[in-house]
């Protein structure tokens, strides 16, 4: 690949990690990884006990149940960019600790909603996502600003990525335990307790990182630094589009307000792009830091994680509804994701110093595609140890090769003062793709399941949704393969040009 398209690491002035004692470094990495842990736990806790929570509210409508998960991912993906910028301006440590406290508050409310209605529960889940939106970008930014580019940073990012599948699994297990053996609200009350404990530990071990780029601290200066106009347009656009896509499977696309919301959302996104390029003095997204590599990786991440959002939701629905497994047993079946995820992250950390991102993405998208194919064709009465078990061995490679590679690339691509925004971009794409893909899958499901009046019709809808996931992952695999091959040709051409220049000297 040509030299213009190669991402060059931005060196930090000094490695902050070098000033840590071994114990403090371990505690620092642990509490930062807990930001990832608590964020992904909120996906697992919803999936395993979905029917139990729904029954407690008298809800069995699939479209409403999907909002229990989609509402959380919606706000995570929508607000990450804003809180990444807040971290850049006000300090990653401050936003990181506030994120834990916010998550604790709304986890408490989510449990208390058992005394109210499912509307309050969805509202609490949506606001839990704001806490996660504070945690994720600032956790990644803390790692990016604390460690200099190198093998150690590669492995730390790999460990951070390995936290995701394990936390989702543990969330599912504990949710199943509380829901089946005790009372489901304790799932969320326990989250509140753990979040407060993490906030306290963060105060003790997370360093305060300051940048040398002061901004006008007047009210107008603050609005410009935060890019409030751009942020408002982007948030509004993402929310309207996501609500339209996730509401359509419930009320149908014939409802006029669905189209109205979608059109309004697209208009806000167009306004966001215009503001970022032509109006904002401090754009929310530093497009100047983007190379072709970065844009390519984000596109692949969107396709792969969108397919994963569909896969994980319909995996749990398929196991519990058609194979009649309990939430606890399904959580036990999901266990292979944890060790395989750890192995995948370690291998990815090793490969990132030896292989170009394009080829890592090819492997990642191939894993997403194969995992969805295996789940889509799995017969209802087939043993778990056949296709289902193999799918669980394959799918973590998609997650844990794409996420660490993408976050590390962007962390190394931008200056230390932009670490929050860089981390935000990847996590925005991941979480928004998860939420939006569920709306797309729900639309496909209701259009092919003939009303869902019989088990076979419901299964047909599930298969249709998984076929959509295969298409998304296949698109990501095709794009990554084309780009990787093109990168190989560019690099080959660059070597030939360099050899000719030496020969002419």
From TrEMBL:
The keyword Transmembrane applies. It comes from Penicillium bovifimosum. GO terms for molecular function: transmembrane transporter activity. It is a multi-pass membrane protein. GO terms for cellular component: membrane. Residues 28-488 form the Major facilitator superfamily (MFS) profile domain. It comes from the Eukaryota. This is Major facilitator superfamily (MFS) profile domain-containing protein. Keywords: Membrane, Transmembrane, Transmembrane helix. InterPro entries: MFS (IPR011701), MFS_dom (IPR020846), MFS_trans_sf (IPR036259). The chain crosses the membrane at residues 64-83, 95-116, 122-143, 155-182, 188-209, 221-245, 257-275, 296-314, 334-352, 359-378, 384-410, 422-444, 464-485. Its main location: membrane. PANTHER family: MAJOR FACILITATOR SUPERFAMILY MULTIDRUG TRANSPORTER MFSC, MFS TRANSPORTER OF UNKOWN SPECIFICITY (AFU_ORTHOLOGUE AFUA_5G09940)-RELATED. It holds the Pfam family MFS_1. It is found in: Membrane.
